[in-house]
Amino acid sequence: MNIVDTSAEIAIIIPVFNEGENVLPLAEEIRTAMQPLGRSYEIVFVDDASTDATWERIDEARRQSPHVRGVRHEWNAGQSAALWTGLRAARSPILVTMDGDRQNDPADVPKLLQELDNADFVCGVRAKRNDAWLRRVSTKVARAARRQVLGVDFCDTGCALRAFKQEVLDGVFPFDGVHRFLPLLVHANGARAKEIPIGHRPRVAGQSKYGLWNRLGRGIYDLIGLAWYQKRRLGNIPVTELALVSKAPARSRQPIWRDIEVRTHAPELQPIEPA
């Protein structure tokens, strides 16, 4: 089944965990940024089994705006799983991802969308980071490791603010850590990737979910697995086929990733049509 619904041209996917204080202001900031573009869009919040009022705030945002949808995990599965659930739930040919802590500025989204005229995947690079020194250092170490192991240099794969065409996900496989390496994976599949500078704001509510191990340690651990995969992946192989002529309609090829079932164990919050 084709999950793309062209009723919304752009889907903005936001994984959240215990970000109850940020949901409503973030939804409003996105509305302010997107309204001047005159393009149809939806906001897909994915609640990774939050223990605060995040789900209730998503429901409230949905009632305030027909652009908002909510999807919830029954148990906490991590940022990569939440991102992948959002990508699977999205119904648009253009996808945008961002963090739910409001450190990504929605005002930068139009800039990323504009760059898609000449690229398939646009990554934000946090020009002036408002993070603790430990997070900045871990980012530099991880970048050096990626350059050494993979021979590919992206400035800021840890930046969640990205815009890309839905088809770049064809052949990309989900794994725990995919949110860190999505630019590398789509680049390896031949997508035209581009980086542009964006702003980065200090966190004003909620708490960071990452420490030294689950940021730097896990990142390097996942990098080793990705290097193994890159050396053994088959890639896209051109083929020529001799086939019998048939009057039956041809079946369209479905990307591999669409066949992977993502389970959410709570009803999805659908947008409410304005009166």
Which secondary structure elements does this structure contain, and how are they paired or packed?
Blueprint: E1 10-16, H1 23-34, E2 41-47, H2 54-64, E3 68-72, H3 79-89, E4 94-97, H4 109-115, E5 121-126, H5 133-150, E6 162-165, H6 178-188, E7 193-198, H7 212-232
Helix pairs in contact: 5-7
Task: Write structural notes for this entry.
The chain has 275 residues and is α/β, with parallel strands linked by helices. It has one domain (10-259): Alpha-Beta Complex (Spore Coat Polysaccharide Biosynthesis Protein SpsA, Chain A), CATH 3.90.550.10. It is 33% helix and 14% strand. It has seven helices and seven strands. It has helices at 23-34, 54-64, 79-89, 109-115, 133-150, 178-188, 212-232, and strands at residues 10-16, 41-47, 68-72, 94-97, 121-126, 162-165, 193-198.
Name the features.
single chain, 275 residues, Spore Coat Polysaccharide Biosynthesis Protein SpsA, Chain A, 7 strands, seven-stranded mixed β-sheet
What is the CATH C-level name? Answer: Alpha Beta
- Separation of the first and last Cα atoms: 31 Å
How many DSSP helices? 7
| Tally of distinct domains | 1
| Class per helix and strand makeup | alpha/beta
Secondary-structure element order, as H and E? EHEHEHEHEHEHEH
The largest β sheet comes out as:
7 strands, mixed
